[in-house]
Write a structure and sequence with these properties.
With 328 residues, the chain is mainly alpha-helical. It is built from 11 helices and no strands.
């Protein structure tokens, strides 16, 4: 009899536990529905979306301005003036072979230069004439890149490209992770040293495990920013041919300002990627990988010869454009 009563009480407790769990889940779902009922999903050309996008870019600009200040505040003013002077010297130099600078000194291993078949010569050193160019500071590169997009973060210029924020988000996460275990955890009060050491080890493990691959993901997202402007640029060409572009320009419509923004940010992105290719081994590796895959596909006997010539000419156009807009 006692065993039967124990079984009944056990089954009752299990039933009560399941009922409580079901009730908790139901309440949670009800709360989520209430939250979702007040949320309106908007597109990339909505004023609220653009406002948050502009705020994000403003935060990024503030962060990089702080970094730049910390980098240069103890250096003589002549150093900064000299770097800017070298930049203007470089921009005023005719497009000669010395403008085809290869990766920075120290990147002369397998990740420097380009892979076989890309048609770009491998150099072992950077031309010292431009080694003081301020745009070789990657913080300056990201600062100017974010600033260019912030300038056009307005409903007057049409839809935004939110994928610009992907790489910034990745870097922000790892910077926060690194800052937490180097500066914040040691200052946390009322926590034992052993517990602090455990937290630090966990964050360091996450950092080491994902840092390299996250840099590759960030570089990849930056490369694919170019694809966002393909459709707008094609539409601009078609409107130029049909004559509708100039009518929109005379009326100063939103479409005209969106086209204007697309052209400017397209060249900003190309210049940025060219700079990243010369400075960052992750961007260089990704570009070389895509180029090698393209050449391998085109070299296949099954690939049509007329289309092969078109693809190679298109590739050469991009190489020439990248060299033309080089600023470092």
């Amino acid at each position: 009899m006692s065993s039967n009563s124990d079984q009944r009480s056990s089954s009752k407790s299990k039933l009560n536990s399941r009922t409580a769990t079901t009730t908790s889940i139901s309440q949670s779902l009800t709360g989520l529905k209430r939250l979702a009922s007040g949320v309106s999903f908007t597109g990339s050309n909505n004023e609220v979306t653009i406002g948050y996008y502009s705020m994000a870019l403003s935060s990024i600009l503030t962060t990089y301005l702080i970094i730049m200040r910390q980098t240069y505040k103890y250096k003589p003013l002549s150093v900064l003036i000299g770097q800017i002077w070298h930049l203007f010297q470089h921009l005023s130099t005719p497009n000669q072979s010395n403008r085809e600078n290869q990766p920075t000194q120290g990147d002369t291993s397998s990740d420097s230069g380009t892979s076989a078949g890309t048609g770009v010569e491998r150099h072992s050193q950077l031309n010292p004439k431009y080694s003081n160019n301020i745009l070789r500071d990657e913080n300056a590169q990201y600062l100017l890149f974010a600033f260019a997009h912030w300038l056009f973060a307005s409903p007057s210029f049409g839809a935004i490209n939110s994928s610009v924020l992907y790489s910034f988000t990745i870097y922000a996460f790892f910077h926060a992770c690194h800052y937490t275990y180097t500066n914040i955890i040691p200052l946390v009060p009322n926590i034992s040293k052993e517990r602090k050491a455990q937290w630090t080890q966990v964050l360091q493990y996450i950092f080491r495990l994902n840092h390299e691959r996250s840099r590759m993901v960030a570089a990849n997202s930056e490369i694919f920013l170019v694809t966002y402007y393909i459709t707008p640029l094609i539409k601009i060409v078609l409107r130029l041919i049909s004559g509708r572009f100039w009518s929109a320009a005379r009326g100063e419509t939103t479409q005209f300002w969106f086209d204007f923004k697309s052209v400017i940010l397209f060249f900003v992105t190309i210049i940025f990627l060219r700079a990243r290719f010369l400075i960052d081994k992750y961007t260089r590796t990704q570009v070389q990988g895509y180029d090698a895959n393209l050449l391998r596909v085109v070299a296949s006997p099954m690939f049509p010869a007329p289309l092969r010539n078109t693809v190679l000419n298109f590739r050469q156009f991009w190489l020439s454009l990248a060299k033309m807009v080089s600023v470092i």
